[in-house]
Amino acid sequence: MSEEAYRRLSRQLDAIPNGFPPAESGADLRLLKKLFTPEEAALAAHMTSHREPAASIAARAGLDPQAALTMLKAMARRELIRVGRQEGQLTFGLSPFIVGFYEGQLARFDRELAELFEAYFTETGGVVAHWAPAVHRIIPVEEAVPAGIEFYAYERASALLESAQAWAVRDCICRVQQKLLGKGCDRPMESCIAFGPVPGMFDGVQAMRSISSDEALKILREAEDAGLVHSPGNYRDGHFYICNCCTCCCGVLRSVAEFGLPTAIARADFVAVLDEELCAACGECLDRCQFGALSLSEGFCQVDAGRCVGCGLCVTTCAPGALHLERRPPGEVLPPPANVGEWLTERAHARGLEGW
Ligand code: SF4
Ligand code: SF4
Ligand code: SF4
To answer: Which residues in 2-12 are b (16+ Cβ under 10 Å) and which e?
Structure first.
């Protein structure tokens, strides 16, 4: 009976456009068993991602509303589901896998959970990151874009941060996971920046540290210095976080680097361009590029435009100034969806899901 509840919950999670595809070995079910009690799984299997009052969910699950409310609150406290308030009452909805309950487990992450997430991720071949539109979009290091090239607010990390009223930072859960597995890198751990429109909204939030806008900008610069790629959500408006990612830890970028899924991340609308006259063939930029887009041959650096994602990290490391970013030709990179709602609709359509 409880096995069936986990199966049903897995299917419900996969019915969210973000996706939670089943793993042949049952890695999805093992992961859910670690996170949800059998009773919680049975209740959550009756939920959708649309938030609704506890009484409605309880009625579908055939449970006493008060008992359901207690369980829903317990799951919300562990960030397994979403909670909010509508017309004065609490409402609950399923949280997607990524970006969602995976990131919410930071405060409880241990070796066993890291192994379960890793098993699920590798067995499903990074497929969650594969569907269009991609979860994340790369935005460039601003200094890499020459003066005179206009770029949109959603392409500028500093503009995203400056538009907010509250800021916080949390450990990068992908890096925490790899550390627990004895892998990964030594790049900055505290590098996931959250922001929002209400002053003080992150005060007291578990696993987050409220910071000032100046500190948020400083963390952004330190991430660039460490060679991390800025990756906010893949939409134009309504941003609320900027991830700073590496191909060795990040689930999304590993899908590009390890599983050969170039569309797992939406590339920036820029490409690195070399001025051969200025290139000293020093090779400094090669290690900076996490996407294998740079090589040395014929006495200077070569850019593989097909591999370049437009992050700009190579540009700021080239002392002679031989590299810069240029806009890609019109139509080569599609603009992102307008907002999260449009992103969900497009992704649901791409996956053949109904009701979105
Ligand atoms: S997506 Fe990137 S920054 Fe966000 S948690 Fe993963 S690696 Fe860290
Ligand atoms: S860092 Fe600059 S000068 Fe050195 S190889 Fe790369 S492009 Fe050429
Ligand atoms: S060549 Fe590599 S480091 Fe440079 S912008 Fe392209 S992806 Fe980024």
So the answer is: eeebbbebbeb
- CB within 8 A of 114, min separation 6: which ones? 176, 177, 178, 180, 181
- In angstroms, what is the span from residue 309 Cα to ligand 3's centroid? 6
Token readout for 137 is 């979009």
Starting from the CA of residue 271, give the closest ligand: 3
β-pairing, 300-303 vs 323-327, is: unpaired
> 243 with 231: CB under 8 angstroms?
yes
Among 278, 279, 302, residue to substitute to test ligand 2 (most atoms within 8 Å of Cβ): 279
Any ligand 1 atom below 6 A from CB of 249? yes
- Classified as helix, coil or strand, 86 is strand
Name the helix (H) or strand (E) containing 43: helix 38-44
Q: What is the per-residue pLDDT across 9-23, written as a single tens digit (0 to 9) for each?
A: 999 999 999 999 999
Q: What is the DSSP string of 89-132?
A: EEEEEEPPIIIIITGGGGGG--HHHHHHHHHHHHHTTTGGGTSS
Distance CA 155, CA 236 (A): 9
Of 113, 137, 209, 75, give the one whose Cα is nearest residue 129.
137
The class of domain 2-108 in CATH terms is: mainly alpha
The mean pLDDT of 124-129, rounded to a whole number, is 78
The full set of domain ranges for the chain reads 2-108, 127-264
Model confidence at 356: pLDDT above 90 = no
Q: Which residue type, as a one-letter code, is found at position 194?
A: A
For 210, phi and psi rounded to 5 degrees? -65, 135
User: Buried b vs exposed e over 140-149: b needs ≥16 C-beta within 10 Å?
Assistant: bbbebbeeee
Mutate to test the pocket of ligand 2, among 301, 302, 324, 325 (most ligand atoms within 8 A of CB): 301
ipTM of this predicted structure: 0.92
Q: How far is CA 211 from CA 34, 88, 142, 280, in A?
A: 32, 30, 22, 41
> If you average pLDDT over every residue of the chain, what do you get?
95
Residues 6 or more apart in contact with residue 70 via CB below 8 angstroms = none
Q: How is residue 203 annotated by DSSP?
A: T
